[in-house]
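To whoever is on call:

I kicked off a structure prediction for a single chain this morning and the downstream step that reads the tokens threw a length-mismatch warning. I double-checked the sequence; it's 204 residues and nothing unusual in it as far as I can see. Pasting both halves so you can look.
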Amino acid sequence: MKKFLKKTLFVLVALLFPLLAFADAKVGEKAPDFNLTDTQGKSRALSEFTGKIVVLEWFNEGCPFVKKHYESGAMQALQKEFKSKGVVWLLVSSSAEGKQGYHDAAGHNERIKEWNIDSDGFLLDSKGDVGKAYGAKTTPHMFIISKEGNLVYAGAIDDKASTDKDDLKDANNYVVNALNEILEGKPVSTPSTVAYGCSVKYAF
């Protein structure tokens, strides 16, 4: 009987583990801490940015939805604008080795230079642990963390789920709205939306 119970427990844990691994971070609660190496070889932790607003942007250079925002220059403009206002903007790649979007640090640094990416750091998450902790499902998938360390926005960058650069001019940018509200001391009026884009290329 004990053998049977042990075996049953093992099977249940094996079945539940993937679900637990993909448990979404909750808006209104503390954002999951992390410690990842960036493309400069520096260890970066969320706790390092306590007292600052932090944007996390899930990134995959091969995704046409990501390309839309970068080839138009729109994402770089947002990074530059909000960095000038004291916001920390971090890119995260959770593409597993061998999957679309995976590179070593040097490969990502080439893309940073080529695309004129203006972030405060590019974090390497090839094991996918941080992506799964946040529930990052698409590229781009956007998260905003308050000065107090709470997750205050999670979802799409805007309301135009297309790869057409022409759609940017009429888009309602949720991230811009949320950041402006936070900077004005207001609560985020739209704290969560459904993210669109390419699926994050996890190992499993």
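Update from on-call: the warning came from a stale cache, not from the record. Cleared it. Sanity check on the structure: Residues 1-22 have pLDDT under 50 and may be disordered.
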